Amino acid sequence: MADGHVYDLLGVYLWWIPRRFSEFDLVKPFDRFWSANVDPDLLSVFLPWPLIAAFLSSIAPGSIGIDSGTGNGKYLPLDNRGSILTVGLDRSVNLLKLARYDAKQDGARSATLERGKEREVVLGDALDVPWRAGAFDYAISIATIHHLSTHERRRKASLIRAVNPAHGRIMIYVWAVEQDDLSKRVLPSADDAAAKEPGKDVLVPWVLADQQKAKAAGPASQASSELATEVKEESKVYDRYYHFFQSWELKDLVTEAAKEMGLHVGPLDASLRGSISRGMEIVKDGWERSNLYVELRMWARSSPI
Amino acid sequence: MVRLITHNLLACHVKGCDSNNFPLTFSDAEVEIRETEYNAEFLKGFFPKLEWKALVDSARQLGDVSLPETPPIDYDSNEEFLRALHHVLLEIHVQEGSMICPNCKHVYRIQSGIPNMLLAEHEVAGR
């Protein structure tokens, strides 16, 4: 990546912080920083909320799901008044400590750090399957897979192994190469982004602004002053990897992952060959506000027609 | 959190460990009981997906013997049973301790209520 691009991207960081709160994985100083600086008011503003909320609200009562790369767990409270349960998986223990309680929305900003309902969280890697086979009825992966640095790794994180092969449903959401006008995400020069090539690999530098360092030093407890010192000492530039997906790339990825598992890709259709007993339907896919998404549904038929 | 609802899903994923790797056995478990809201609709829908024997055995490891070896046939209308199931699945929290794979004996630690299912790169299946 040319130096000029790094410079462009530096201007983005303040905007990213609220929008992409949940995406820190192994950048420890940031974990610590956010553990002390939760500002839930900022979280919901720009999020791809409606699509995910609609997906979760369509899940049958009694279902159990996995949120792979849950971060601070912002989707865990969308539980249809307790009739479904989403387990949050992340590899940042500090973010999981936030995810395991709902933030109470009492109005006053200070009150939002009080503990609300408890959630289930598991420390683990989005590439692994630490579950019994097909344990989940549904799975979501929101702004997670684009942090994985190879095609192979992204394919392994597609969650097809985690869900029930007969009825499992999956929603995956990633950043797109095509950004809308409102987006401040800056991509390396768009003119070489030939549409047939895979998406763009970008390192987004993360910097802590002085203002935020001051905020981290705010509460006078011993723990937070230690934290502030650590943040200050380590507040340099941290590059975080992002893969911006081409429009066709997410669909290709899940198709490849399904075929690798011997699944037919397409809807369950009586005209399919009798030997086909399991499949994955791409229910819908599209582009929404600079992101690509795909919704999948597994199916199985016991006796070939 | 490690509640039994989550424990009923977790399996060992060490490379090559693909049979007898469920359920993980609790060891040195420190348990806290915390009440939570009862939702019959969730329990009725979730019940058929449970690995029943694993749930009963694991609850007993944690000192709770309220669940029967064989679930009642009328589980979806038996409120006494559903209340007991609610308690076992959602109100028993393992705060500290370990979960050990019955097959390969890998130890997964639980700290501050969070189970650590991370493995070293060379231990993981399918990487």
Q: How do the helices and strands follow one another from N- to C-terminus of chain A?
A: HHHHEEHEEEEHEEHHEHEEE
Strand content of chain B: 15-25%
- Unreliable runs of chain A: 1-46, 106-112, 209-233
Query: CATH homologous superfamily of chain A - what is it?
Result: Vaccinia Virus protein VP39
The total count of strands of chain B amounts to: 5
Domain Methyltransferase type (chain A): 67-153
Keywords (chain A): Methyltransferase, Transferase
Protein name (chain A): Methyltransferase type 11 domain-containing protein
Pfam families (chain A): Methyltransf_11 (PF08241)
Give a brief rundown of this model:
Chain B: Interacts with TRM9. The complex is a heterodimer of chains A (305) and B (127). Chain A is of the alpha/beta class and 305 residues long.
Structure description:
- The complex is a heterodimer of chains A (305) and B (127).
- Chain A has 305 residues and is an alpha/beta fold.
- Helices cover 26% and strands 25% of the residues of chain A.
- Chain A has a single domain, classed as Rossmann fold (3-Layer(aba) Sandwich).
- Chain B is α+β, with helices and mostly antiparallel strands and 127 residues long.
- Chain B has one domain: Single Sheet (N-terminal domain of TfIIb), CATH 2.20.25.
- Chain B has four helices and five strands.
- Chain B is globular.
- The two termini of chain B are 26 Å apart.
- The relative contact order of chain B is 0.29.
- The A-B interface holds A 60-64, 81-85, 87, 91, 93, 96-97, 100, 117-125, 127-133, 135-137, 156 and B 1, 3, 5-6, 9-13, 22, 34, 36-37, 39, 41-47, 49, 51, 93, 112-119, 124-127.
